[in-house]
């Protein structure tokens, strides 16, 4: 198990809605539970869109979704989410989803999720 900070990165086309998932215990290179450290979104130019960060968990009887952050950009390029005082842990099978609307944006952007494996 590595406690080093790791990154999952994706370049996205903002002409269509985007959903970018990180799945604990299933994504390549992630063997265990993980701690989310930060989520970064950057567009190549100013946009007016909403960026949401959600945790989708697999409970014993149902799937549940928690909205962790929603950032409405208005002629801006960057959105950053950090858990702050409360840590966010994903168990094997849980998903962190970063979604970007596509109301008016064109061009490209990038999403970066920083995490590390937890015990």
What does this structure look like?
This protein has 119 residues and is mostly beta strands. The chain has a single domain, classed as Jelly Rolls. The chain has no helices and nine strands. The strands form two sheets. Strands 1, 3, 6, 7 and 9 form a five-stranded antiparallel sheet that branches. A four-stranded antiparallel sheet has the order 2-8-4-5, with no helix packed on it. A hairpin with a 4-residue loop joins strand 4 and strand 5. The termini are close together.
Task: Give the tags.
4-stranded antiparallel sheet; mainly beta; 5-stranded antiparallel sheet; Jelly Rolls; 119 residues
Straight-line N-to-C gap: 8 Å
The low-confidence runs, each spanning 5 or more residues with pLDDT under 50, are none
- CATH first level: Mainly Beta
- Which structural class is indicated by helix and strand composition? mainly beta
Biggest β-sheet: count, sense, barrel?
5 strands, antiparallel
Q: H/E element string?
A: EEEEEEEEE
Overall number of strands: 9
CATH architecture: Sandwich
CATH topology: Jelly Rolls
How many alpha or pi helices? Answer: 0
Radius of gyration: 14 Å
Q: How many structural domains in the coordinates?
A: 1
Please state roughly what percent of the residues sit in beta strands, choosing from under 5%, 5-15%, 15-25%, 25-35%, 35-45% or over 45%. Answer: over 45%
Give helix % range: under 10%
Shape call:
globular
Mean pLDDT: 86
